[in-house]
Amino acid sequence: MKRIVYGFAALTTAAWLFGLWVDPPAMNGRGLSHEVFYWNGILAWGYMAMAIVIAARPAWLERATKTPLDELYRWHRTIGFWALGLSVFHWLTKTIMAPVFSLMTLEPVPKIVRGELTGFDLFWSQMRGFAVDSSIWATVIALVLGALVFVKALRYTKWLQLHKLFSALFIVLSIHAIRLADPADFTLPLGIINLAVTAVGLWYSVLLLVRGAGREKEVPARVTDVEVHESITLLTVKPEKPLHVRAGEFAFLATQNEEKHPFSVAEILPDGSLRFAVKALGDYTTNDVPRIAPGDEVRLEGPWGAFTLERFETDAATRRKELWVAGGIGIAPFCAWLQDAAERKAKVADDEAFAKSHPIAKLLWCVRDCADEPMLPKIEALARRAGIEFHIVESKKSRLKPEALFTAGVPDRLALCAGAGLSNAVAEAFVAAGGSKTAIRREHFDWR
C-alpha cells in the first residue's frame, strides 16, 4: 500500500509538471495560484478516494494492494488525515502563498458579455456557484467528521454511521472537481487522473451508501453456541455456505440493527463453524454481544487479514526460531494457529518429520489475571498437542519487561497481536537486540 500511496503523489506531481511544460501558465499571481490549486486539489481528491475505497472493502482489496485489511485501515486513517490537511491547504492556498503572490501582478480578468443563457449553458453556468459554495461547507463538515475520530466516548455504531457521510461529501465535491477544472485540462495527464479519481470515488461512494461495506464477502449465518464469561464471550457461528478461512484470519460480524464489527477467528470447527472470542472492551462488546443467543441470525463478512501461520512456516532446510506474543484477547488468532499446528502434527507420521516443517516457537500470553481467562485451559492443551512452548505473564503479579525477552537470544521472527503499547514496546526491544524489522508480523487492534 505504501507504494500506491506515494506512487500516486509522485504520478500526480509528475503529471502536473508535465502540464506546466506542455501548456505553461501565465507568469502572474492568478496563473500561479490556479496551478497550485489544481495540484494540491488533485492530491487531496485522490487520497479521499483511496480512503473511501478502503472503507468499501471490495473483495479484491487485499490482493491488489498486497496489504492485509487491518493494516489497510491504518492507511485509511493516515491518508484520510492527509486528505483533510491537503483540503485545508487547497482552501487556504491564496492566504498561505500570499507572500509569493504579492511579488507578482494579478492578471486582469476580462469582462465577458454574454447573451441570455438557456438550457444546458444556463445550468452549467449556475453550477459554478454551487461548486464553489458547496466545497466550503463540505470541507468544514469533513473537518468535523475527522475530529470525531478522537471522540472515543462516541458509540462505535453512531461514529461509523456518521463516518459514512464522507461518501455523501465525495459525491457533492465531485461537482467541484469537474466543474471548476479548465476544460483544456482534461486533455492532459493531470486532468485524466482527475476524471479517473472522480469515477472510482463516485462508484465506491454510491456502493457504500446503497449496499454498505464488504457486501461481496458477506454471507448470512446463525449463532449455534454462546458461552458468556465475566469479560469474554465465546460465539460459535455457522455460515450458510462454507468459507475458506485460514488460521489467524478475522471476519466481521453484525447482529440485527448493528454495524459490522471485526473479530479474530479463534477456532475453525470441522463443520465449517467459526468460533470467536470477544472481549468486553467497548459499548457493543460489553452490552450487546453477551446478549446474543443461539439461533440468532447474524451477517458474517470475510475472511480478511494475513496474520496466518503459513507466513511463519519455514522449509526443511532452515528451521527458524520464533516468538509469538499475545496481549489479552490478542490470543484469539494464536489459538487458531495452535489448533492448526496440532491438527497437522496429528497427521504426520513422526515428530521428526513434523519438526522439519514447523518452526521452533514460543508463545507468550500477557493477561491481567489468569482467573479471568476462560480460554486458558484450551490454550495450554493446544500448545501441548502442537509442541509449542507456552508461557503466561500476569500483570497483577509482575509486568512484562520487553527487553528481558531477548537477553538469552534473538528469535528469527516475531509475531505480535496485542495493543499498540505492548506491541510497540516488544517490537522496539526486538530490533534493539538485533532483530530485523522485516521479521516482525503484527495484527493491529486499534482501527478507529
UniProtKB/TrEMBL annotation:
Mind listing the UniProt keywords for this protein, alphabetically? 2Fe-2S, FAD, Flavoprotein, Iron, Iron-sulfur, Membrane, Metal-binding, Oxidoreductase, Transmembrane, Transmembrane helix
**Membrane topology, record value:** Multi-pass membrane protein
Identify which cofactors the protein needs according to its UniProt entry.
FAD
Membrane-spanning residues: 5-22, 42-60, 81-101, 134-153, 165-181, 187-210
Tell me yes or no: is Metal-binding among this UniProt entry's keywords.
yes
> Which Pfam families does the record associate with it?
Ferric_reduct
Q: What Gene3D superfamilies does the record tag this protein with?
A: Nucleotide-binding domain of ferredoxin-NADP reductase (FNR) module, Translation factors
Keyword Transmembrane applies: yes
List locations, semicolon-separated.
Answer: Membrane
Q: Which part of the chain is the FAD-binding FR-type domain?
A: 216-310
Q: Which domain of life is it from?
A: Bacteria
Protein name as annotated: Ferric reductase-like transmembrane domain-containing protein
Source lineage: Bacteria, Pseudomonadati, Pseudomonadota, Betaproteobacteria, Burkholderiales
